[in-house]
Amino acid sequence: MKLYYLVLLLLFSANCIAQELRVKESNSDFSTAQNVNALVVEIPYVSQDFIEGKVKKLFKGFGKYKESKKEHVAMMAELKDFGELPFNAYAKSYISKNEVVSVHFGFDLGGAYLNSREHPEKFKVMNKIIEEFASKAVKSWVEEIVREENKRLNGLEKEYKDLIKRKENLEKEIINFEKKIADNKNAIKENSESQSVKKNEIEKQKKQVELVEKQLKSLR
Questions:
Q1: Do the Cβ atoms of 75 and 66 come closer than 8 Å?
Q2: 64 near 86, Cβ under 8 Å?
Q3: Nearest Cα to 123, choosing from 147, 144, 142, 105?
Q4: 3-state DSSP call for residue 121?
């Protein structure tokens, strides 16, 4: 399945990917507030579990992190470009029918949730952070797939080399066996000849024994 997503990714140009990773505004529900403004980004190709890990890492960089009921929270978060006042950040991920993961980010600035109309400068900052987050997530996902595919390739290449080595060993064994068979055939031939010679020697010796026995009897 990962390889399938990788193939799809390669079919799109960089501009298409960038367009898909654009942040949009929408109303969302979080544990502390419902139907509030949120920054939403759809991240194609990746799995929801993978994105969950990336959101967790992002929020740990914001402030005091906690997770409850699949909602990521960063309390009293601080960003240099946001000014001195801390904020609370919330995030939830969803997966659509076409298996595209979307992440909904909510930023409680203290009485109001971040939106482009009331907080244009802060919105621009967070918009950039989320787009970079999504872009890096896709890149990291592809890199992971490449690592896994390379690992599989290396495994197949090792198996192939093992097969070649096994074939070479078998061929060597055959050569050794053939040489051994040839040597054994020669040894059998020599043995047969030796048996024939030895049999003749035995016959001669039998006659010699008989002759000696006759001579012994004649002396009695």
A1: yes
A2: no
A3: 105
A4: helix
DSSP 81: G
Q: How far apart are the first and last CA of the chain?
A: 107
The span from the CA of 77 to the CA of 59, in Å, is 9
Residue-wise pLDDT tens digits, 170-182: 999 999 999 999 9
Say if residues 182 and 190 touch (Cβ distance below 8 Å): no
Backbone angles phi, psi at 86, to 5 degrees: -75, 165
Tokens of 84: 């001195």
* Full-model pTM: 0.68
* DSSP string over 173-187: HHHHHHHHHHHHHHH
- Domain layout of the chain by residue ranges: 2-154
Q: Identify whether the C-beta of residue 25 lies closer than 8 Å to the C-beta of residue 38.
A: yes
Distance CA 23, CA 134 (A): 9
Per-residue b/e over 90-119, b at no fewer than 16 CB within 10 Å?
bbbbeeeeeeebbbbbbbbbeeebbbeeeb
| Whole-angstrom distance, CA of residue 183 vs CA of residue 177 | 10
Closest CA to 100 of 25, 150, 46: 46
Residue 114 phi, psi dihedral angles, 5° rounding:
-50, 130
Contact 53, 133 (CB under 8 A): no
pLDDT by residue (tens digit) across 87-133? 999 999 999 877 889 999 999 998 899 999 999 999 999 999 999 99
